[in-house]
Specification:
The protein is built from 12 helices and 7 strands. The protein is of the alpha/beta class and 331 residues long. Helix 7 runs parallel beside helix 8.
Length: 331
């Protein structure tokens, strides 16, 4: 079933015509013929047809939404072709190829910004790709490879994915401990810090190190090569912690994990990931230290967790008082 918008716009109103066209195009509409726009019945952008109908009528034009059901196989095939995103994926792949060749010349900040823009473009395109196929899979692989290239070129100490299976661990053996990870915290480490304090070790202390050689004796490392908890297979550190401590059955934590995974290593776009990324970028821009970044990010993950679950919100304890180990712990 499809939802169709039949239109006849007022002559001479080019502004309205352009505004309506842009709105319908961004929603992923297919054009059956001049003035007839289609969307799959349950497509997320179906509300755009109602908005366009109201705007056209308000301007004195004709607009009507109707449901269409194409029964003949050749009709269905023809309609599906209206939603072919092959050319758009090809254009995205061309942009990604140009970006890949220029990464080293651009430098870390500009390269990361460019890759973020391409990932957003990929997410926007997949949102209107109602019949995904090989083109989407190829673009997904290219985005992942591009993200990997940036990591190899500019990321200091980014963990390589280890092989093996996760072991189920008892949280009681990981309490009142010093947990260490790399400085300049970002999404996987920030989410892991929140998870550790909230669900694993409520009395945890944290230290930020330059590299594995700087870790305090007896501490627990995460998100660096050789750490007790780091990337395993296709799981990022946050997901490894979930699985290791039996937390992966919590749908709210799993939802956060999907967003963290996408922001850290790419993959399947996640709707909420863009908002999480924006807020965390704002925190990093304002924070004066990794301690402050971790503290403010914990509040954000609290809000995300509350939004994903019906359970009462538990206030995150202040990381400020215990984010650094004692002198004895550093020895």
């Amino acid at each position: 079933m499809f939802l169709a918008l039949l239109t006849s716009l007022p002559t001479g109103n080019s502004t309205l015509r352009m505004r309506v066209w842009r709105a319908l195009k961004s929603s992923g509409c297919g054009v059956l013929r001049d003035g007839v726009y289609l969307l799959p019945l349950n497509a997320p952008g179906a509300a755009a047809l109602a908005d366009a109908e109201a705007e056209i009528k308000a301007a004195g034009g004709f607009a009507m939404r109707v449901q269409l059901n194409f029964e003949m196989p050749e009709q269905v095939q023809h309609v599906h072709k209206l939603f072919d995103r092959g050319e758009e994926y090809a254009a995205l792949l061309a942009r990604a190829g140009t970006a890949r060749a220029a990464l080293r010349r651009l430098g870390k900040r500009k390269a990361e910004t460019l890759v973020q823009r391409l990932r957003r473009a990929f997410a926007d395109l997949t949102a209107i790709d109602f019949y995904p196929g090989q083109a989407q899979r190829q673009a997904k692989d290219t985005m992942s490879a591009l993200q990997d290239d940036v990591g190899k070129l500019f990321s200091t100490g980014e963990p390589r994915s280890a092989k093996g299976r996760l072991r189920r661990l008892a949280p009681a053996q990981y309490r009142h401990r010093v947990w260490v990870t790399r400085k300049d915290l970002w999404v996987d480490r920030l989410a892991s810090i929140w998870l550790i304090r909230r669900f694993i070790d409520k009395k945890a202390r944290f230290a930020w190190i330059d590299g594995p050689r700087d870790r305090p004796k007896g501490s627990i490392g995460f998100d660096f090569d050789g750490a007790e908890f780091t990337h395993v297979g296709d799981r990022v550190t946050f997901e490894v912690l979930l699985g290791s401590f039996g937390l992966d059955g919590d749908p709210a934590l799993a939802s956060i994990g999907h967003a963290v995974h996408f922001l850290d290593v790419g993959g399947i776009p996640v709707t909420d990931a863009r908002g999480l990324e924006t807020v965390l970028n704002g925190i990093k821009a304002q924070a004066r230290s990794d301690d402050e970044t971790a503290l403010e990010a914990a509040k954000v993950f609290d809000h995300f967790y509350s939004a994903y679950t019906e359970r009462p919100r538990v206030k995150t304890q202040d990381l400020r008082s215990s984010s650094q180990p004692s002198r004895a712990a550093r020895a």
